[in-house]
Amino acid sequence: MKIDKRITPPSAAKVSSAKGKTAGKASASGAGGDSLTLTESSTRIRTLESQLASVDVADAGKVESVKAALADGTFTVDAEVVADRLIDHTKEALRKRPRKK
């Protein structure tokens, strides 16, 4: 059996039937054009995503301690941890690659 990967766009009637609390907020115009109104929750999610994108995720204290250890020459690398993480990363990359037939 062959799977057809072409996706057909939904009709305007299907687009206008929304589920849940916001059923009345999505609508399709009957005058030849489609329109879309975002719900309050989707607008809020987009705002939060943009705020999270600007958040610094680095731990300043850890960065400073590594810098100090490098400057002092006391920074050590645990080869076993590095090897384990390299193996895990490689396994994950192999799982994600497409399979050849």
Distance between the termini: 15 Å
**How do the helices and strands follow one another from N- to C-terminus?**
HHHH
Task: Give the overall average pLDDT.
Answer: 77
Tell me the structural class.
mainly alpha
- The helix content, as a percent range, equals 40-55%
Number of alpha- plus pi-helical segments: 4
Largest sheet, if any? Answer: none
* Binned strand content: under 5%
Radius of gyration, taken over Cα atoms and rounded to an integer in Å: 25 Å
Unreliable runs, pLDDT <50, ≥5 residues? 12-29
Give a topology summary.
Elements: H1 12-16, H2 40-53, H3 60-72, H4 79-96
How is this structure best described in words?
- Helices cover 50% and strands 0% of the residues.
- By secondary structure, it is mainly α.
- The protein has a domain at 58-101.
- It is flat and about 70 Å long.
- The two termini are 15 Å apart.
- Residues 12-29 have low confidence and may be disordered.
In short:
Helices cover 50% and strands 0% of the residues. It has helices at 12-16, 40-53, 60-72, 79-96.
List keywords for this structure.
101 residues; 4 helices; mainly alpha; single chain
